[in-house]
MerR family DNA-binding transcriptional regulator
Amino acid sequence: MLDAEDAQGADLRSIAEASELLGVTQRTLRFYEDKGLIRPRRVGSMRVYSRREMGRMQLILRGKRLGFSIREIGEFLSLYDDGGGRIEQMRHLQSRINERLRELQDQRRAIEQTIDELVKMEGEAQDRIDALERGGD
């Protein structure tokens, strides 16, 4: 049943409107619906997205951007649904965030090392080119 706010239609979006506002395809919205992460309402055969579902999609997209799995995002959404009041769940969330931070920091270090090595190799290649152009070995 529609609540008073949604009954006016002001906060309901069609799948086309929702996908455009979120910057995703309609197929993406249906994918997350199939995974049970969002539950758009139906008006006849049309999917409609409430403010709540739009908020959930923003959380999903943020989780994906941060590299979390669908399962992890589902766990985070359950915290959102529960109001985040259960301390054990919040500690688990914090633990997963810290783990992801460590992974990304490790990746950043590896990328920085690779960049440093490539810069050094590029300099060595340029030195060799310069020497060859001067006619030396």
